[in-house]
Design a protein that fits this description.
alpha/beta, 5 strands, 44% helix
């Protein structure tokens, strides 16, 4: 089930931004994500995460991957009845996890500083919601200017 078009995504983006800011404060890359389950009582955050490649010395702990990990083990139906919110366009690895679990909607804070594998998501029927968040854009611009070598490492350049 897709998230409804009328849903106010800002509170969920705010939670993802808070995760990104936490990652930055820890010395990492400011990308955050939340996994939101559509429940009878409305949407509920079930997983929060931020990029932890630096903090954990991890090759795969991007924001979306961390949110999925922190959500714990869910049923296939749960994933299919959820949406994921991320401050930055998902990379190919995170896109693969989204497709694997058949998450039907991805809410993207921004894709100006980095355009991930959005075409792949679209080709597989995933609905994308672009929020064009100035806060997300500025956070990434500031980080990339301050630590270009760390950013390039994270995106595989």
């Amino acid at each position: 089930m897709n998230a409804p078009d009328s849903l106010d995504y800002q509170p969920f983006l705010d939670a993802a931004i808070a995760e990104a800011q936490q990652g930055l404060a820890e010395g990492g890359i400011p990308i955050g994500s939340v996994l939101v389950l559509n429940t009878e009582d409305g949407p509920k955050i079930v997983g929060r995460g931020h990029n932890q490649r630096v903090q954990q010395g991890s090759a795969i702990r991007h924001g979306e991957m961390d949110a999925l990990e922190n959500a714990g083990r869910l049923t296939a139906k749960d994933y299919q009845n959820s949406f994921i919110v991320t401050t930055l366009s998902p990379c190919p690895m995170c896109t693969g996890a989204i497709l694997l679990y058949k998450i039907p909607t991805v809410v993207i804070g921004e894709n100006e500083t980095f355009l991930g594998a959005e075409e792949t998501l679209i080709q597989h029927g995933v609905r994308l919601v672009h929020l064009e968040s100035e806060a997300c854009k500025q956070m990434m611009r500031d980080f990339i200017a301050a630590k270009p070598e760390l950013w390039n490492e994270d995106i595989g350049v």
